[in-house]
Amino acid sequence: MTETVARHDVVIVGAGPAGMTAAVYAGRALRSTLVIEKGIPGGQLNETDRIENWPGFAEPVSAPELMTALRSQAERLGAEIVQDEALRIEPGRRIHRVVTSRHPIEARAVILAPGSRPRELSAEGSARLKGRGVSYCATCDGFFFQGKRVVVVGAGDSGLMEALFLTRFADSVAIVVRHPEEDPRAIRASGLLRRRAESHPKIRFLWNREVAEVVGDRSVTAVRLRRLDDREIEEVPTDGIFVSVGHMPQTEFLRSSVPLDSDGYIVTDSRLRTSIPGIFAAGDARIDAHRYAQAVIAAGEGATASLEAEQYLAE
Ligand SMILES: Cc1cc2nc3c(=O)[nH]c(=O)nc-3n(C[C@H](O)[C@H](O)[C@H](O)COP(=O)(O)OP(=O)(O)OC[C@H]3O[C@@H](n4cnc5c(N)ncnc54)[C@H](O)[C@@H]3O)c2cc1C
Q1: Whether pLDDT at 1 is above 60
Q2: Which of these, 83, 102, 159, 228, is most buried using a 10 Å CB contact count?
């Protein structure tokens, strides 16, 4: 029996800000456009209630509402958004195949926008209090901690950058570090960032400790830390915990087909082209994204990838 395979000009994997903006551009170019989304369209922004750094809104806007509007815009311009999961990509010379959990789809151009997830804290209470004091994005949530006490977990470049950023809002910022102060592995950030953090009057380091439990009923009230020398538990009162222990791009399904870097990010050139002609990438799953994982940047990359795909198709 022959398999019926749907064919589209542009197939986009992921309906976050990157994928849906790519769909707006592809739709406006009158390309038959399919967006495959395994969860709820909107991506990571569905996990936060308000966004106030998306351009064009004087007041904070509901992030899920913003994403619903972006979805409607893409659909009005002709894109079709389906709930399905891309399981793998089979690159071809002129036609690529996207194998999904339902059926294979053929595409003349593919835009990969599967995003990433922050690596989560495994300590007890952290999942329950996520969004209620446990945050994975200081740029996004720091504003809500004006005059409060916060704890940062992670002492890499991004952890120290988050801590320094949070000093604009919070009264005190404590950084939890897994190693003793004299251990060369203690801080994995650049020397300059370390110097800035160490000399900042609002920042203090809690060396040689790990998070044992996040405490709070409706929101975070304290964190229990385990001292790694004597295994004693101490409770530190806090209003918020910012976790910065890395990101994980959602690119497992691309491992055998598309070049990824050693951390799993999709490798592209500056025009967002992968090394496979006709396959592009945008947003938080793309190499370099971990520097500034922001919705407006992902959307901008979605637009760029779509314009590049259009140029590729026109050629
Ligand atoms: C709690 C929180 C608050 C934030 N607040 C802000 C903020 O205030 N301002 C800001 O600018 N940024 C904020 N961000 C960051 C912002 O959400 C991200 O930078 C942005 O969403 C990245 O967009 P993206 O389209 O690349 O990826 P994502 O938003 O991650 O979307 C990717 C989509 O692809 C789907 N997908 C993945 N793999 C597959 C597959 N195999 N098949 C089908 N679908 C797949 C996922 O389900 C997801 O919906 C926040 C992030 C979080 C977690």
Answers
A1: no
A2: 159
The closest residue, in CA terms, to atom 49 on ligand 1 is: 43
Residue 16 CA, ligand 1 centroid: distance in Å: 5
Report the distance separating Cα 92 and Cα 90, nearest Å: 6
Residues with catalytic function? 137, 140-141
Domains in the chain and their CATH numbers?
6-118+247-314 (3.50.50.60), 134-243 (3.50.50.60)
d(CA 292, CA 285): 12
**Which residues surround ligand 1 with Cβ inside 6 Å?**
13-19, 36-39, 43-45, 47-48, 51, 53, 85-86, 113-115, 136-137, 140, 250, 253, 283-284, 293-296, 298
Measured in Å, residue 198 CA sits from the centre of ligand 1 at: 32
pLDDT tens for residues 151-193? 999 998 778 988 999 999 999 999 999 999 999 888 877 888 8
Minimum CA distance residue for ligand 1 atom 30: 115
Q: What is the pLDDT of residues 259-303, one digit of tens each?
A: 999 989 999 999 999 999 999 999 999 987 666 788 999 999 999
pTM for the model stands at 0.81
